[in-house]
Amino acid sequence: MLRLDKSTLYASLPLLFGLILGVGFLNSFYKAIDPNENLGEIALGPENTFTLASNAEKQVHCEGGLIQIKVCIDAYLNYGKDNNLILWLGNSQLHSINQIKTGDETASSTLHRQLASQKKYLLTISHANANLQEHFLLFEYLSQTISVNTLILPIVFDDLRETGVRSSLLDILDNKLILSDLEKTEYGNTILTRQKNKKSIESTSDALNETRQEGVEEYLNAVLESILNIWGDRALLRGNILNNLYKFRNWSLDITPTSIRKVIPGRYFLNMKALNEIIESAKRKEIKVLIYIAPIRNDVKIPYDLDDYDVFKSEVMSLGNDNFIKVVNFEDIIPPNYWGTKKSTSINDDEELDFMHFKSEAHKILSDTIFKEIKVENDL
Fold it and tell me: pLDDT digits over 258-285, tens only?
């Protein structure tokens, strides 16, 4: 039988004490977590309300993976397939309302009604921080699944600093028609190559499948989940710990919404490449495209490197206008009083300016502006 002498026991006390403190800290941290909190939208803050538009029994605005998106597709097929379909892709600007009041609604809700009067059906899909690479993949999937007449596509400078495709959208690659289309394009092959490399890395864990180690780990997880709520909700706990680390990073490096963002060249190139692929794909499919530079608050200095931002705007506007594409600049359409503030993204309690999300009145301005653009073009 294993016996511990006093020296071993004393040496172990700091470890035991640290373990007790650690479990106690995690437990107190866990109790403070809101189980209904959407970690994917946590950067919005409590001042911005996550809102997906519906019209009567129809869900007309979706986000998430293919299961969630299919709800909107089914609504169109059941209630609107006889109308021209207009697809609006975007980021959290489309699904959040700053300082919401009773009766407020998003631009997608208002625009859906406006277009319905013209025998058109608006379907909106948005994801937080969505980049153009993800829009390209979604567009390929949706244009193969349903008959899209027009694409509305906002271009957000900040989102061009993002790259890759989020895991919730990778199921699209299981579609053989999509794979065939992607293989015909330069950027499509870039997506496929990246995913193959990712799977190759992940496959190293396959060696554990159906082994004794895997069985022991599953047993221990089951036991710990039955004893500790913390263990059962460890994914939620991990997400909130990462969020607090994100806030600590912002505080320690003095990163705020007004911190200047510069272009990340490699990511910018991939996103602009994806934008060109979207345009070429739309033209091949005879789908019209309305591209707009997204609104940003203009009553204070914007948090972008102005030289980079000017180059970006010039590149987008130079995409030109023809029978299939129209490019417009909406950056200044929202008055300063319709932009809001949000709680700190750092560990302090200072209120911060919100450069991305606005109030319901601004959503109405955005929907009216888009509606006029489409109407002027006589069924753009």
Answer: 568 789 999 999 999 999 999 999 999 9
